[in-house]
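USER: Fancy drafting a protein?

ASSISTANT:
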Amino acid sequence: MTNTFLTKTMNFLRGSDISERPLEITPVELEDGKLIEYIGSHVNFYETPLKNNPELSLIILFSLVDAFTDLEHPDCEGKNFSDKIKALPCTTKTEKCFKECYRIIRVLRNGCIHGQSGFTFHNKKISYSNGRKDNIDISELGIDYLFTFFLQIIGNNYGNGRLQI
């Protein structure tokens, strides 16, 4: 796979109505007591409607991030998600954020594809529960931040990037 897929998908998403939001430095404590920090950016708004189709938006975003991960970490290509996530580096703030956000979109993507009965979009909030360990409630603003984070991380490596952590 070449970076053409990444570039074209990034341009497609950035040409849509999915918002990129300013990211702020905000410590987030994980269950194991470790902290992650995010940093600032700027906003873009466009007119290809995707926002009212969160399932398609999340599937496209996951595909973009998964392809990016395989290109950046060729040793991960072909691995199942559990092995892939374990193999990702986790030393810098960016790597830690990437790894945790990747987990989140994987759960949401799986909800869109495999668990449609547990996936809802209501009052600008996505909820997903599969009755086991995967349960997420995330606001539209939270989804905007996920998109912003990934579009800027991938953009830094494949053009038009703005985020630097």
Remarks:
- The chain has five helices and five strands.
- The chain has a mean pLDDT of 78.
